[in-house]
Amino acid sequence: MALLEVRDVTLRFGGIVALDGVSFDVEEGQISGLIGPNGAGKTTAFNVITRLYKPDSGEVLLDGSSILKAPAHKIVGKGVARTFQNIQLFRTMSVLENVLVGAHGRGRRVGPKEAYEVLDVVGLRERALFPAAALPYGIQKRVELARALVAKPRLLLLDEPAGGLNHEEVYELGEFIRKIRDDFELTVLLVEHHMNLVMRISDDVNVLSFGRKIANGPPSEVQADPAVIEAYLGADDEHDDDEPSPNGTSQVSDTVSDTEPEDEA
User: 19: which of 11, 69, 72, 166 fits an S-S bond (Cβ 3.0–4.6 Å)?
Assistant: First the structure.
């Protein structure tokens, strides 16, 4: 059963069509990847789901009910939490205070004990009293994740969680996302440029290109889809590093930099 349903969503910024009739479902309990080249509309879709942007048309349903009439500050209360591509922390506040803010957004009264339990999950108990601004970029991303988890969401939106991580850290992140999905009984929608991560942990993948959905399915099928290969590599490009699939066609591999920022419309 789909927990999240995006139905024929269109969003324009002047003459730019950022999302063009986009539809996809995220099944409850699954990790669903949302991928595409820079400017494809991935973060824009996140901003529609979390009510930061109002679409020109279409519908977004959470557990069968529309969330498009809810103001942005009410979305967390409906069980949706997110992290951001560009970290959004209260920089002068401590790690612990940032996590407590996440619970407040859900309208939950959470004391330090529960906040520390979440910090244990992300391995930051010992840094609980550090100001957020004093932490390295990768640690700040874990603080943001803890802040999302303490709200006890049903749907967790992760926007570029692997940005700035090395390959070993990316592998560990994939295992961690699976663990929190299971431990917190989450449904996860993942936007990520690191293709190996997406294809390894996702149950289902949707692909956007220039604001349109061009593919959907299990990772193995999406990797070998000609439209996806063209969107990432270009129709006439030949890349020696492309991995052959079992049927002899190219596959989308880790072709996009995991540190390259996305310039979304």
Answer: 11
